[in-house]
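Listing S7. Sequence submitted for prediction.
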Amino acid sequence: MPATVAGASSDGVRPARSRRRGRTSGAASVRVGAQRIFEIQRARLLHAALGLTVVGGYASVTVSALVSAAGVSRKTFYDHFRDREDCLLALLDESFSQIGAVVVPAWEAQGDWAQRLRSALVAALGYLESDTVSGALVISYLTGRGPMRPELRARVLERLCEVIDEGRLHMAPRYEVPPLAAEFVVGGVLAVIDAQLREPSPQLVALANPLLWTIVLPYLGPGAARRELARTAPTDRLASTPPVEDPLRRLNIRLTYRTARVLEVIAHSPGVSNAAVATGAGVNDQGQISKLLTRLAGIGLIENVGPGQPRGGANAWKLTEDGQRLEEAIRRRPVAGRRR
């Protein structure tokens, strides 16, 4: 029901409280839209950082290169990150979170230490093999390359050592393990994985048995280590999927709240006219909305399916396939560089 009818009193005047509620709703819509743009800008910067790192290593990730690759201003970059290292650490933190979502449930499953360790290691190797770009980024950081700030690296290495050193709880009384055993094991395992990731076609899951032999040997002895080595080699791995393309990468456009709002209006009401788009997007100037719609049509995000002005009829706008992909990306929080 139209708001002018639903909120009107008997004399046709909208109550004051309804006007306040309308303004609040509009302000909330603007805040939500601005947050969506903020998230997309951040995701584009992280996506750009990942791409630059793959091509030229950490040294190639400069602020100038980032803003150019992401298609944003330097001010936008500094709205999100303090400096290039802050951006790189955010990318690493997101990558670790994605790996953790696969590995932690495997580690927390039922079984003894060696069984849970095998499950977690196979899950980790499968993830890294299916996403070698993120895998190389994470492993290179853990082995000492990349941003110099040590906080994230220290946290992850400490946790890995804790997991390995849990083997002390299962040692036979005759065994004695030096205090630094877990650090030696973690360092060796990471070095092996790092070397394999440098190969043209990394085969990481196949390393599970030899790596488990290395991990188990100091804690459970040669017999247990041999059993791990003799197990059937694991074959399960995550399916490798292509990276999600940045929906703005090929477009000569800088995403603003107004652009996002116009796409949202057209998505919700296919066949909508210029005037209706202007009203829904909160654009009072018909000349501005006409220019924006023409530009969006020119870059292939919307198309006019109505008779249009040359034939004396109103425009009727709908999203193209590219426009639909972009509008969907605006509505959900994107994750940069991740294979979904």
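Caption to Listing S7: primary sequence and predicted structure tokens for the chain studied. The beta strands are 302-304, 317-319. Confidence is low (pLDDT under 50) at residues 1-24, 238-245, 333-340.
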